[in-house]
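@channel sequence for tomorrow's demo:
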Amino acid sequence: MTEADSNAQGPSRRALIGWGGAGLALGAAAAGGAAAVARTDDAAPAAGAAVAFHGTHQAGIATPVQDRLHFAAFDVKTDDRDAFVAMLKDWTAAARRMTAGKAVGEGGYGGLPEAPPDDTGEALGLKPSRLTLTIGFGPSLFEKFDLAGRRPEALVDLPQFAGDNLDRTRSGGDLCVQACADDPQVAVHAVRNLARIGFGKVSVRWSQLGFGKTSSTTPEAQTPRNLMGFKDGTRNIAGTETDRLEKFVWVGENDVDADSAWMTGGSYLVARRIRMHIETWDRTSLREQEDIFGRDKGEGAPVGKAKERDEPFLKAMLPDAHVRLAHPDSNDGATLLRRGYSFTDGTDGLGRLDAGLFFLAYQRDVRRGFIPVQRNLATDALNEYIQHVGSAIFAVPPGVRDADDWWGRALFADPSKKG
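structure tokens (generated this afternoon):
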């Protein structure tokens, strides 16, 4: 029985069981299943609901930002193209079920006692929790499987930026999976199952858990705050702003040639792990903190303004204020869609919290987005309190259109053939 047949026949055994109960550096001024909600990317589904997996664009980009993140980068361990393609198809089938609140395959129990279960089982009984799974392909993937000619020009290797202190074990990757959900266990379960399915073909290179979203794609919601206590994402692109999404986020037909046309409707993701020196920050005066950001800490209003969303007067800010340097007006209009999360990963061994921002930004072209903005932030006063310690870039293909489609199908298809 095919995945489509299974879905058509109604809830699986797992479904019956599971459904029965129930920021650049930081604060830049700058969808399936019976319970699924159609993905319009303009409003968050009800708590616990599903986000549709199929769509023109992958969910997890313009989708209303969920509360939790599990991000994983993978290295490819096989040189067998057919085996890798089969894995991508298996991943897609699993993602289609998990985002609908169903278990992978036949579920976490009830199968042959002599064989491992198809699902790891820790999400049994949990709701879909708006789980989205978003896949991306790193530059290094195109060195494999004869894909060099299909690497998009915009998928550039990121340059070294001022102040970078990158940990190579927390950077790069042949491909990535971004799992966002309102329940951390649902997000972790999703990545864990994909890693299990990919065993022998891919391995986890690095991963990051995140909490407390630091950007929003729903401007009517309260603006979230980062670990420095400042509102983040005031000018972020909203999921309802179709014109801005087309202009700044989605790759258009004119952005690609015949070999990279598979990226049409996709986007480019920059992921940066930004360590905050929060112990030093916490001993900094309120006035200096506000001068560094260019906004007041309470309301979030820009210097000289009364409300958070008042248009900032950049010249009223100090020349090295973060908002002034990151604002589109200071970067020839460069604008990103950000989906960052806070993190705390224990201590650094010196009595300081290993905490900060896991920065995620989607854009139409990093050469006109993240790269020029990050270069402009070289003189940012905030740099005294932060350091970029991890970095990666990925080409995020368009969405999975229907039950016959799968992640990466257009990339691995013969470009000389249509359909």
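heads up for whoever presents: The CA atoms of residues 315 and 324 lie 8 Å apart.
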